[in-house]
Amino acid sequence: MRALLLLALLLAAPRAMADSADITKILRGRYLATVGDCIACHTGPNGQYAGGRGIETPFGLINAPNLTPDSDTGIGQWSEADFARAMHEGVRPNGDRLYPAFPYPWYTKVTREDTDAIFAFLRTLPAVRNTVDRDTLPFPFSVRTVMRGWNLLFFSPGYYEPRADRSAEWNRGAYLVEGLGHCSACHTARNALGGDSSAAWQGGPLQGWFAPNLTNDARQGVGNWSVEDIVAYLRTGANARSRASGPMAEVVGYSTSLMNEADLRAIAVYLKDLPAAAPTPPAALATSDPAMRTGEALYVDNCMACHRRDGQGVEGIFPILAGSQVVQQPGTDTLMRIIISGVRSVATDGAPTSPGMPAFGWRLNDQQVADVVTYIRNSWGNQAPAASAADATRLRGLVAAAPH
């Protein structure tokens, strides 16, 4: 009897070990999908990972595909190799070229082991039948073969290569930031063809916002942020200097707030090593400038109660405006959008209160919005280009047209 029991245990052991290995791979894949913020784009009206969300691009709206294992409308018939090719080369199993709204120019750096783990996780999701219209761009962008030319110009496939002259922590941060995190997809401006501009990591326009500079420039970047400041911001969506809102609120809510502390610190260490780079700001406008005088009066009437007369805000609740990197970016989109349409910061386990700012677009006309933005961007030591009423008019149009 003992011998039979031992034999049964020996026969079951390899299967138990295999199950354990599969579970470990799936759990790792779930974490990596979280790092890549996959759920943010691929969740629509039909549920998580079922696709259908419209992604705004300068060339039109692109609907994110279904990533559930449905055989007809999802990736149920894909293999590990198919998924890896999509991640590393931007090519679907049928040979169609993907648009870089799916960030394969960054995902190409992810190891095959990690893409296999993500695929294993996706295969465990409930299959959702959801047909997504994948051909929404106008001609000529609707012709996917044009991506061959785009790839020749702007895409360099290849796994991340660790640097021997940097620490393991720095290399982990680089792997996450440049790969699954695809941070420069937003924080580097695009050129007219949608490729990287030469101003790497210096921020740029994004869907009616302005993604801020992530270099170590003291005025426009994170030069005055410590590693701990960056970790706190990514973990909770808030630190003593700023609160995450807009597109970054999704990144924090769906991704960075769920990452482990070691990875968050590695990201911060890597970002703090980016060289400072930013356009030279103009001299601050004189307080006697008509826009500054009008803007000051508007600030006192509408903003001072929360952000204080000296622009210092209330720590942990209302962001500091004095010395703010968001305020001093070259573009005015973020500040104008917040004033026109209001905003709510992200809520996380680490910072469950999500303060909101009400919309003032109903109360202020376009010239008034421009004046108060100009005042904020040139007060308390801030230096940034003045805003215009035309900027405010454009932002109102973008807010009205944005998908809801």
TrEMBL record:
<keyword id="KW-0813">Transport</keyword>
<keyword id="KW-0249">Electron transport</keyword>
<keyword id="KW-0679">Respiratory chain</keyword>
<dbReference type="InterPro" id="IPR051459">
    <property type="entry name" value="Cytochrome_c-type_DH"/>
</dbReference>
<dbReference type="InterPro" id="IPR009056">
    <property type="entry name" value="Cyt_c-like_dom"/>
</dbReference>
<feature type="signal peptide">
    <location>
        <begin position="1"/>
        <end position="18"/>
    </location>
</feature>
<keyword id="KW-0472">Membrane</keyword>
<keyword id="KW-0677">Repeat</keyword>
<keyword id="KW-0349">Heme</keyword>
<feature type="domain" description="Cytochrome c">
    <location>
        <begin position="290"/>
        <end position="380"/>
    </location>
</feature>
<dbReference type="Pfam" id="PF00034">
    <property type="entry name" value="Cytochrom_C"/>
</dbReference>
<keyword id="KW-0732">Signal</keyword>
<feature type="domain" description="Cytochrome c">
    <location>
        <begin position="168"/>
        <end position="275"/>
    </location>
</feature>
<dbReference type="InterPro" id="IPR014353">
    <property type="entry name" value="Membr-bd_ADH_cyt_c"/>
</dbReference>
<keyword id="KW-0408">Iron</keyword>
<keyword id="KW-0479">Metal-binding</keyword>
<feature type="domain" description="Cytochrome c">
    <location>
        <begin position="18"/>
        <end position="126"/>
    </location>
</feature>
<protein>
    <submittedName>
        <fullName>Cytochrome c</fullName>
    </submittedName>
</protein>
<dbReference type="InterPro" id="IPR008168">
    <property type="entry name" value="Cyt_C_IC"/>
</dbReference>
<keyword id="KW-1003">Cell membrane</keyword>
<dbReference type="InterPro" id="IPR036909">
    <property type="entry name" value="Cyt_c-like_dom_sf"/>
</dbReference>
